[in-house]
Write a structure and sequence with these properties.
The protein is of the alpha/beta class. The protein contains eight helices and 19 strands. The strands form four sheets. Strands 3, 4, 5, 6, 9, 11, 12 and 14 form an eight-stranded antiparallel sheet that branches. A seven-stranded parallel sheet has the order 8-10-7-13-15-16-17, sandwiched between helices.
């Protein structure tokens, strides 16, 4: 009797083990995993499909998953179909250094100074005339064994009038991609009373304007941009991998997406002149160095662009500061994302420069974006959480970040300049701040600046 009980117990143990193996050890069924087990999918939007949070694509009758014939225990069961929320893959964050490890950028060096630096072991990697600052910008390779601090001091010592700094890196300011179902994938421009025309096209009283954009690559073949007045300028001379199209496409679509499309632009009739100043860093993120940013800004100023969107941030840099000041002196308004480093982070640039309009992000309830940088330099708030815009290949999705708040202010500036072309950068900023809706502490504060952008007054309707 005991032997029979032992045999039965062994068989039951074997059956339990096989059942468990069929549940957790065998390949996952096509179309989903077990009920209650989240299915992790990549969170990038380069999958070639519509990223609009549509329904499940799994087949089967009566809403059930139909298993294929398999030689495993799972084929004995039919799990009911259920929508599986796309859980984003949290990829390892690749640390981006503050600057290139062996480069110095300088302006104001004459030929004698450059020759002397060559004798000291510096190598001129590139040099270009920058009309914006009225002189030449030089990129130098630091002698082997010399620290960057020592190199900067050595270059500065060659000319008292030179502006010298590291070749700092800057990054786009996109945060997490929010998931939405169809009824939740709505435009958020109503928050600021954006003027709309027929079918909500956003063209009422809005005159086509030229807008500058410095960003990543843009998918100009995206359906929402197919008929846009879009020109992408090539900096040339890039040695790194091409930048991704996610960020630039999303920002461009917000500005000039086709009316009546899934992402109607704020100014669909405007001409957008974009410069791709970025390159891919370790196949994970996009970066732009200050040398290329200044070249990009110079290209736009040469085109007589009066408003430029800068949805990017990085460290303070003397070369960039000089270029920003020169652009403002020429009457160009620069609009920049405040940054997504968090409410306790230090200010980032170019947003923190005095001559730049710093834009933070809020959600539909007017709460501040949880990752937005705060500080006395913040000028104004705009929608930037769950903003419906283009995915990089096709379709659309919600995106969050101060990157997607900045285009609202850029578009508003463009309209103000169309109505009053003679406004200086300071006067444009004053107009925006005067009409902003104060949603924080009375007056200017470190969270919302002067308040939420108010577009109702742009066409004289508010």
């Amino acid at each position: 009797m005991p032997s029979r009980l032992a045999a039965l117990s062994g068989r039951l143990s074997l059956l339990a083990a096989l059942t468990l193996a069929g549940t957790v050890a065998l390949p996952a069924p096509e179309g989903g995993f077990a009920p209650g087990v989240p299915l992790a999918l990549a969170d990038d939007d380069d999958d070639g499909g519509d990223d609009d949070g549509g329904g499940s694509s799994r087949g089967g009758r009566g809403g059930e998953w139909q298993p294929k014939a398999r030689g495993d225990l799972r084929s004995l069961f039919r799990w009911p179909s259920r929508d599986v929320r796309r859980a984003p893959v949290r990829r390892a964050v690749v640390a981006v250094p503050d600057q290139t490890p062996n480069e110095i950028v300088a302006t104001g060096l004459d030929d004698d100074a450059i020759a002397g630096l060559a004798q000291d072991g510096f190598v001129v990697d590139d040099r270009v005339e920058i009309a914006l600052i009225g002189g030449e910008m030089v990129r130098l390779i630091v002698p082997q064994g010399m620290t960057l601090d020592a190199a900067r001091a050595a270059v500065s010592a060659r000319s008292a009038s030179a502006t010298v700094d590291f070749n700092h890196f800057y990054q786009p300011q996109a945060g997490e991609n929010a998931a939405c179902v169809r009824e939740g994938c709505a435009l958020v421009r109503h928050m600021v009373g954006w003027p709309t025309g027929e079918a909500g096209s956003g063209v009422a009283c809005l005159k086509p304007q030229r807008i500058g954009l410095i960003d990543t690559a843009i998918n100009a073949k995206h359906t929402v941009l197919a008929n846009a007045r879009l020109e992408v300028l090539d900096l040339g001379g890039g040695e790194g991998a091409p930048s991704g199209e996610q960020h630039g496409t999303a920002v461009a679509a917000l500005l000039v997406g086709a009316p009546g499309s899934r992402v109607p632009g704020l100014l669909p009739g405007a001409e957008l002149i974009a410069v791709d100043a970025f390159q891919r860093f370790r196949k994970s993120t996009d970066i732009a160095n200050v040398y290329d940013l200044v070249r990009a800004l110079d290209l736009l100023i040469k085109r007589d662009i009066k408003v430029v969107n800068l949805s990017l941030t990085g460290p303070e840099n003397l070369i960039l500061k000089r270029a920003v000041e020169a652009a403002a002196d020429r009457g160009t308004i620069l609009v920049a994302a405040a940054g997504n480093d968090g409410p306790n982070a230090k200010p980032v640039y170019p947003a923190a420069y005095e001559d730049v309009i710093a834009v933070t992000a809020v959600d539909t309830a007017r709460n501040p974006y949880r990752r937005a940088v705060r500080g006395d330099h913040i000028d104004i708030a705009a929608p930037g959480v769950g903003v419906w815009t283009a995915a990089s290949i096709s379709g659309a999705r919600q995106k969050s970040g101060t990157s997607f708040a900045a285009p609202f202010v850029t578009a508003a500036v463009s309209i103000l300049l169309a109505e009053k072309p003679g406004l200086s950068p300071q006067e444009v900023e004053a107009e925006l701040m005067k009409s902003a809706e104060d949603i924080g502490k009375p007056g200017k504060d470190a969270i919302y600046g002067w308040g939420l952008l108010n577009a109702r007054t742009l066409c004289g309707s508010g």
